[in-house]
Amino acid sequence: MWFHHFKTVVATLVVAFIGVSVRGADIAHDSAGDSVYNNGWTNGSNGGYGWGGGWQMHAWNTDFQSLLGDSSTNGLGDPEGDGDINSPRAVGGRAWHVVDGYAVRPFSSPLAVGQTFSIDLDDHGTRQYAYGVSVSISLADGSDGLVLFAGQFSDPTPEYALSYRTGFSTHGYVHTGVPLTDQGVHIAFTRLDESQVQVSLTPYLAGVNTTTLDVTLDPSYARQLSQVEFNAFSSSPTPSLNSYINNITITPEPSAVGLMALAAIGLLVRRRGTRS
User: Fold this and answer.
1) pTM for the full model?
2) I need a surface site. Which of 107, 129, 178, 186 has the fewest CB within 10 A?
3) Cis, bond preceding 179 (omega within 30 deg of 0)
4) Are 45 and 181 members of one domain?
């Protein structure tokens, strides 16, 4: 009898869980190599697939530019000759960058538990006044959920740092331990549960491992991570101080998240039944 009730409860939980999971973001991808950008990266450009709309450009001042460029030309160049984060990944390829403003790409829906948003960032690798760079995962209204800073001038530590929303007006702040690099870094944000998000950083440097951190957000923010924002402030388009992004992706598709949960709960039911 108890097992019958157990299965009923589990079935109810499965239906509820999958009902929430399938409302996650569609699987999505885009890169600067898409032919849509052959004539430039402008407001409304909508390359790739699976997103909630095209790029939205926002200017801090009249010097704003949204451009395609070679990410291997910033910082100290590209000593490894691998093209940093370009598409194609070779010297002479291209990536996106902005000057004096920020670019936003909306997801089709907020990230579900189990989904990952990833992006390549190639900052200039130094702390420079008026050349701050950040990548943030935010709510649809622009409120920040998580912000990864590269060379924030007010922070004396020359490494990537993470700010995350712990309440309506409060934030946590943590150093990642990953030194700034002008060779590019792959960043992934994964929703683990109703409040936790795992952030991983993998520099594009030989022999360097992936660093992961789990941070706890206010659940009302964790449930509404709906867009990516790339913010770069500089007083002029100086090539060595440009910062770039490329290769944005959301995985897995929502139905896969639900199926993984169903498989896990089904295994639990089977074990319970065997023990009975």
Assistant:
1) 0.85
2) 129
3) no
4) yes
In total, how many domains does the chain have? 2
What's the CATH code of the domain at 44?
A: 2.60.120.200
Nearest Cα neighbor of 155 from 129, 181, 184 is 129
Per-residue pLDDT for the chain (276 aa), expressed as one digit of tens each? 544 554 444 444 444 444 444 589 999 999 999 999 999 999 999 999 999 999 999 998 888 999 999 999 998 899 888 999 999 999 999 999 998 899 999 999 999 999 999 999 999 887 665 567 899 999 999 999 999 998 765 677 789 999 999 998 889 999 999 999 999 999 999 999 999 999 999 999 999 999 999 999 999 999 999 999 999 876 555 778 889 999 999 999 786 555 454 444 454 444 445 444
Domain that holds residue 93: 27-252
| Calpha distance 63→79 (Å, rounded) | 31
78 and 10 both lie in a single domain: no
Neighbours of 258 (CB within 10 A): 21
